[in-house]
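User: Fold both of these, please.

Assistant: Here is the first one.
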Amino acid sequence: MPGARTHDLITVLTGAALMPPAYGALATTYAPVQATGLVACFVGAHLVSGMLFSPDLDIDSAIDDRWGPLFWIWRPYMWLVPHRRFFSHSLVFSPLLRLLYFYLMVMGVLVGGAWLLGQAGVTAPYLHVIVTEQIFDLLRRYPAEVRAVLLGFITGSAAHSIADWLVTGGKRYLRLFGLRVRRDYSNHDRYVPRTRRARHARSF
């Protein structure tokens, strides 16, 4: 399968390619300024989905490295979700699953933090309730923007999954036409411990 940089390029190119048809579809219903804003929400979510919420979060890869010190929040996801299966690489279900997982992890951190502060005698606000209420308020007040973000989040992930399918499954069909993909993607799924990647990076 393509590496992280190739997937990033695919994400950017597909996002750019989707801008004109997205604007054309929205301009029939919304005013130009609002249509432009919705396209920005859509493309922004497309890029975030492809580069930060990539289907490859189910393995120890360059993608979880982009979360910096917060990489650990994806470890349970990595352990629970089999790589390149329905739960990680499906077109619609998988990106929504990652959004739900991220929400639950954030809620868990907020609840755990409040509990620790409580053990120290500090009364903390119910941030998990406040954040959840704010999310539902956004859903009620900005339904068009929320739909644009969710659609962009789905397309950003789908661009990754489709590219993987074309590379892994398309080779044999290309051979029927006498075409061969010579580049080797066999190392794409290889697990490399974070400490080893860090040592390798310091050696350069």
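And the second sequence with its predicted structure:
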Amino acid sequence: MNKLDIDYKNLLSDVIEMGVDKDDRTGTGTRSIFGATIRHNMSDGFPILTTKKVAFNTMVTELKWFLRGDTNIEYLHKNNCHIWDGDYEKSGRTDGSLGPIYGKQWRDINGIDQLENLITGLISNPNSRRHLVSAWNVEELDQMTLPPCHYSFQCYVANGKLSLMWNQRSADLFLGVPFNISSYGLLLLLLCKETGYEPGELIGNFGDLHLYQNHLEQAMEQTIRDGYDLPEIELICYDIYRGDFDAELINYKSHPAIKAPLSN
């Protein structure tokens, strides 16, 4: 079994066995631990779980949306992506906007295009320790339908390889984290295409890492599944700034999806 699935299942077990039961804003309740990390060497294959099927195309659509700087749900609906519907409906908005969430901050935080600055810096000054993009804009948090859960990512260049580490204040381990792993893995590969570096390591840091109470049985089911070899990915990037790229998984074999309700 691949290391990514082993490490992910270990996180599931840690939360199930050592987590503290807590109330949360959705009213569902969680079992939670604080502080955890997952690491993946990109040379081992594309980082997508095989112990359950992950909706790859939905993840790709959301990442394209972020990269475009778009925050309107219309783009997602046009591409059959509905993962933000619950948050949008709960917000009471009627104009399609989710407020100045991820894409807005990545591409226009107080007039600064962080994505463009990141790519320029990676090429011109690879040893800098400032290759960082933040979505946590304190001035605009109250305007967002949902404050960013994965609030920043940092890049690092060494020996011709580009690594990426993202930070997450709140991590829905069963539904959200599998998307986050694959999304940031794909972002890392896109940045490599743009800068010419080879992919290095993908690292995720989690603050409040939790399972919702109505995900516990599903999580336990996943822990007893053995994973398969990780797939490869065929990626063509036309324009990263427009979220214009094609991505296709090669030889993705997985167990069936495990359904669980989304808490908003």
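The CA atoms of residues 162 and 200 lie 5 Å apart.
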